[in-house]
Design a protein that fits this description.
A five-stranded parallel sheet has the order 11-14-17-10-18. It has a four-stranded mixed sheet with strand order 1-2-4-3. By secondary structure, the chain is of the alpha/beta class.
Length: 495
């Protein structure tokens, strides 16, 4: 036998395409060629595979070796094909005898001494492997993550272990697929925040409908603390959602299985670039907005972000996905996140404070707020001015409701929404909003003209009103619900 065929996977976004690793040995001067649109790391497999085979006690054939990674037009990166290439050489050179690999897929990078190293993006590979009804052979450090899907996973520590399994000398047993535990949220409790009754109310509304939120207030008002309490108010991820989130994180840094069912909370620094936020690279990787999929994206000090960085949020906020186009390929990553942002009203933070003077009144304060474009603000459902906490409230003993108490109401509102429309209120379409608009059409027309609301702002306020009605366990959206929702529109103080 001078030919071998094995199967592997190449992540493409959160999908994983099948790659056929074909190896052919031919007479002639010794050479080792890898074809199939691989990057530098793939081409360097030649040196890793050669050393791994020799150091594992195998013979490296002195023949003309050609390895084809098909399909040829699919971009491939990393060392994930090392294991398949090494096994292909062993099979094609008859060092393993006659073995059957049609029921297996391989993913693993080889060390020079033959040890198997983990690779990124293993969860999308495991999901695709499960769909193709094959077993997946991975490095031991990848086994826990791969087994989350329920796919049969075989874990090995080194190349010799895989060879012994294929020849039947030492068969490997399937890695146990222990379902991850749905652990309660371990963050802070809402009761720890003194005062800020209005902010807690708007936080509950945001949690109950998945609405985006902007908090504006002086330094020390508790904006960041409020945002950090939001994950504790949200229901756990469903299994399919958890797998989607884990698949995205697998492409960069795998999630701990301890937080498998917890909604992601991402808080990038304001110096982050557009690529870091949206994703990109020659072989596109997900950015912060995709890593926050089904979770929360918290942007603190919002005006300090570069304006061009903020503008890239506009489309994902509407569509729930982000498309990244490169010369070689175009990928779409999911980005159905809940935006929570915080900002000061001016550079010093004390604009409008009767006790403290602001050194940036008038033009400087206006320029600071002007860093946020109207279209971006229009896409944020809830706006709230957060005042500084009174000293008596801050030092008092009275505690408010706990996160667990509020979470029960949020969970009930989520159940109502899924039973009624199979989605959260933030995702209601204009056609879904029409019946809610009809009884209040004349009144809302006057409000639109008076407040200068756009059609998008009005629709977002009606979605918020629907959430307020759900929290009140009301089947109909009443006028009071609309009034409260409209009061949470753009409230940024003007200098």
């Amino acid at each position: 036998m001078t030919h071998a065929l094995l199967y592997s996977r190449a992540p493409l976004g959160i999908q994983a395409r099948e790659v056929r690793v074909e190896t052919h040995l031919a007479p002639g001067l010794p050479a080792f060629t890898i074809v199939g649109m691989g990057d530098t790391a793939v081409r360097e497999s030649r040196d890793r595979v050669r050393s791994a085979l020799v150091n594992s006690g195998f013979e490296f054939p002195q023949r003309r070796i050609t390895v084809s990674l098909a399909p040829a037009d699919l971009p491939k990166d990393g060392g994930r094909f090392d294991l398949a290439i090494a096994l292909g050489i062993l099979i094609a050179s008859n060092q393993l005898g006659k073995v059957n690999t049609d029921h297996l897929e391989f993913a693993g990078e080889l060390s020079l001494n033959g040890l198997l190293n983990p690779v990124s993006g293993i969860l999308p590979c495991a999901l695709a492997c499960q769909a193709s009804k094959r077993s997946l052979m991975v490095a031991r450090d990848n086994a826990d993550e791969a087994s989350l899907t329920g796919a049969e996973t075989l874990a090995a520590s080194q190349l010799c272990d895989v060879a012994a399994h294929l020849t039947g000398q030492t068969p490997l047993t399937a890695h146990p697929s222990d379902p991850p535990r749905n652990l309660p949220f371990q963050g802070g409790c809402l009761s720890e925040i003194r005062g800020q009754a209005m902010a807690k109310r708007i936080l509950e509304i945001a949690a109950a409908g998945g609405h985006s939120l902007l908090l504006c207030g002086p330094p020390g008002a508790g904006k960041s603390m409020l945002a950090s309490r939001l994950p504790g108010l949200l229901p756990s991820l469903r299994t399919q959602q958890a797998l989607e989130v884990a698949a995205i994180h697998s492409l960069k840094q795998p999630r701990d299985s301890q937080v498998f069912y917890q909604r992601p909370y991402r808080a990038p620094h304001h110096t982050s670039s557009a690529t870091a936020l949206v994703g990109g690279g020659s072989y596109p990787k997900p950015g912060e907005i995709s890593l926050a999929h089904h979770g929360i994206l918290f942007l603190d000090e919002l005006p300090e972000f570069d304006r061009r960085v903020l503008e890239v949020l506009r489309e994902p906020l509407e569509t729930g996905e982000v498309s990244i186009a490169r010369a070689a390929q175009q990928l779409t990553f999911p980005a159905r996140f809940q935006l929570v942002a915080a900002m000061n009203p001016c550079p010093c933070g004390f604009l409008g404070d009767p006790e403290k003077s602001c050194g940036y009144r008038c033009e400087k304060a206006k320029r600071y707020q002007a860093k946020l474009s109207g279209p971006l603000l229009d896409r944020i459902d809830l706006h709230l001015d957060v005042p500084a906490v009174d000293a008596h409230e801050l030092l008092g003993d009275k505690e408010g409701e706990s996160s667990a108490q509020v979470r029960q109401r949020v969970l009930q509102a989520w159940q109502q929404q899924w039973q009624r429309q199979q989605s959260l209120n933030r995702d209601l379409s204009p056609d879904d909003l029409e019946p809610l608009l009809r009884p209040h059409r004349d009144w809302l027309a006057g409000v639109m003209n008076r407040l200068g609301l756009s059609a998008r702002a009005l629709h977002r306020s009606i979605r918020v009103a629907r959430t307020i009605a759900d929290l009140a366990q009301s089947e109909e959206v009443e006028r009071d619900h609309l009034r409260e929702a409209l009061s949470y529109r753009q409230n940024i103080q003007q200098g």
